[in-house]
Description:
single chain; Spectrin/alpha-actinin; cytoskeleton; Methane Monooxygenase Hydroxylase, Chain G, domain 1; mainly alpha; 263 residues; 7 helices; Microtubule-actin cross-linking factor 1 isoform x2; rod-shaped; Spectrin_repeat; 0% strand
Amino acid sequence: WLGETEQQVRSLPPPALRPQAIAQQEDRTEMLLQSISEHKPLIDKLNKTGEALIKLVAYDEGAKLQEMLDSDNSRYDALRSSLKARQEALEKAMQESSQFSDKLEGMLRALGNTADEVNSVEPVAAHPPKIRQQLKENQAFVDEVAKREEAFEAVKKAASDVIAKSPSDPAVRDVKKKLDKLQQLWAEINDVTKTRSKSLSEALEVAARFWSQLESVMGSLSQIEASLVAQEPPALRPDAIKRQEEALDEIKTENRSNEAKSR
């Protein structure tokens, strides 16, 4: 029985990654521990019988019997200790697996939602106040991602550790897939927000210059309009007509100057 049980314990696989698989391993470990407990009376009987025999046989034979008893007891204790240690390792693995799965799924959901938001923002506006608001909103996304960086790195490291610890576990493929998705979302969000920040900053500079020039031109046009309205009706005397022509030439010159500024 000892040899068979030792072989079974040696062939036990390392803790799995998925909680369901770990639970099955815990059940198997519990069965082996139960078997060891059930054989405890047999070990006790073996010790009792052996001790009685040692008293009846010669010293050399007694020493051999004692050595056999010590070996069997050591093997029994080692089996029990090994399975107890495995039981603790499985409990820890179950806790870590649940926590890791929750953290990984939570981070994927959070980054997925943020990616959807940054990819569905409205186009760059034309008016400076609106562009400033868009810059503020984009910065909020940047700040949100920055706050998650520490958690992101922790989840990424945990996933890498899981993959390195059990590379042959079928669940590793799923972890790798989710890790790749996580890193893809992270890079996408950072790229999109960085590009949008640059576009908004450039648009703000152009829009501010445009609206400033437009206001200047509109002001000049208003003055020209007022000047035209204030013009006297066409005169009859040559000197008066000449003055009116000069005034109109000044208005035309100013108008051309404003057109040049607005280009």
